[in-house]
User: Fold this.
Amino acid sequence: MNTDFDAIVIGAGPAGATTAIRLAEAGWSVALVEKRDFPRRKVCGECIAATNLPLLDALGVGEAFRDIAGPELRRVGLFVGKRRIIAPLPPLDAGPHRWGRALGREHLDTLLLRRAAEVGVCVWQPWTVKRGQRDGALHACVLVRTGGSDKVRLRAPVLVRAHGSWEPEPGAQSGARAAHRDGDLLAFKGTYRGARIEPGLLPVLAFSGGYGGMVLGDHGLTTVAFCIRRDALRAQRSQTPGRKAALAALEHVQAHCTGVRDALADATQAGDWLAAGPIQPGIHAPWRADGSFAVGNLAGEAHPILGEGISMAIQSAWLLCDRLLAQPDGRAARDAAPGHIDHIGRDYARRWRRQFAPRIRIAAMCAHLAMRPHTAGALLPLLQASPGLLTLCARAAGKVRQPPVSPIGRIINPLPNGAK
Ligand SMILES: Cc1cc2nc3c(=O)[nH]c(=O)nc-3n(C[C@H](O)[C@H](O)[C@H](O)COP(=O)(O)OP(=O)(O)OC[C@H]3O[C@@H](n4cnc5c(N)ncnc54)[C@H](O)[C@@H]3O)c2cc1C
Assistant:
């Protein structure tokens, strides 16, 4: 059994799968380790911004995505209290597919993972990375079969962490999670059939102590996903003791957003409610002192109010692969000396900040306003009078900004714009 690779990627969400596909297509041997069986549902609003569509095409899953994703998202809304403010969503400036669409993570992540296997990635699933350590110039990861006891040790000069930010780090002591805080944001998602929501509308939900979104996605299913502060959820649960957290949270949302209550009035729940968190918005560490790279949520996480997390996952993976494949002398990073890998890491971290930090800050500002409808109340008449401000906000949040990386085509050869 081969246990030595050019790269090990931990986690097969959009960030990890994108990294694995691109490196494998460039001729690297790649191990992709995912602890869960797929297909699996996941807490997420599942809106995929239009900026990712050329990237999904380049990854080889664009057509399959379009075959099953929900309708084009052409309008954005704000549901707060009894108000419904609606405005156009800006389209991409160019290209055949100019609006984003929603697709369940059980489909998107499975499409990407299948594609990774097709292009030669060695997929370890369901295996959990338990710990990683340095072995000279190599990274060594110990994997255990999820739910079993088989163990294996993989080694590679390049380690990419794509295991998200909502679960303990591989190697973290059990019980090492931070203490509960009132301001923790807990995330929930429910899926409904027969909801009354206009196709192509993407309403942002603003309510005291939280925010969220609702959208019609694939197979006629509507996703309702939101974050709620721990103290707001506790207060709601104290009114209905014994009520499950997700249902208490939904009651809170429906009490504060008439639009959600109306949309779900005759709808039927499809599948269990899912919960995750606390989420960890903020800039984390795209490059780590142990010489590993992070992509997706683990590198940095935007408050999900703007639905840019999948974009940042795919696009940060893209950025990292550009750096790994773009060596000035044409050599791949896998052959590079550790000092050179550090150089690539610093370069990647700098570019990551330039590309993603503004999105994280804008999302934080919107999230804090949305969670405090009373503070934001002064803005509502203005938004009602000029809904176009919502369109501007979507533009500022990066919804139409093409990522400044090699956009289309298989990147088999190193890119000409070498690392600095
Ligand atoms: C309420 C809510 C709504 C959202 N709505 C949207 C939206 O509409 N649009 C959008 O773009 N984004 C949205 N997001 C954000 C989006 O879900 C995340 O940003 C995205 O999932 C990050 O992708 P990732 O690949 O970095 O990590 P993940 O998708 O979290 O994938 C990480 C993978 O790593 C695996 N893993 C973890 N630990 C290990 C281990 N030790 N060994 C092996 N595997 C491991 C996990 O099983 C998982 O499959 C939302 C988030 C929330 C909370």
